[in-house]
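Chapter review: from sequence to fold.
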Amino acid sequence: MLGWLGVLPFLLAWAAVFTGYEKVGLPLFIGYSAVILSFLGGIRWAQALAGQLPKQDFLYSVIPSLFAWLCLQLRPELALVGLALGFAGTAYLDTSGRPLNAPIAFITLRLRLSLAVISLHFAVLCTLSFIN
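The C-alpha cell string follows.
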C-alpha cells in the first residue's frame, strides 16, 4: 500500500501540469522523481551494508542519486526522459542485472511501481508537448 501511495505525488504533479499549472507541477514532478530515484539507490546501499549484496554494489547504489542530480541540471523535457531512463535502469538492475536480495513479491511490486512511474514521466512529456 505504501508503495502505491508513493505514486500519488507523481499523479498530483502530473494533474497540475495537465490542468495548466505546469509552472508548479513540473518542478514538483521532477524534484520528487529525483528524490525517489535516489531512494531506490538507498535500498541497494542498505543491502550491501548488511552484507546481503557484494561490496561492489555500493558503487551501484550511488549511481541513481548522482544520475538524478545530473538530471536536475537539464531542461525539463530532458530531465523527464533522463529520470524515466533512471527508473528503467534501476528496475533492470534490481531485478535482472544485479538482483536485490528480496522476496519475489517485493521485486514484482518494484517492477509494477517502476512501470507506473515511467508511464507518468511520459504522460507529463506528452502533456507538455500539447501545451507548447
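Two observations follow directly from the output. The mean pLDDT is 94. The chain is about 80% helix and 0% strand.
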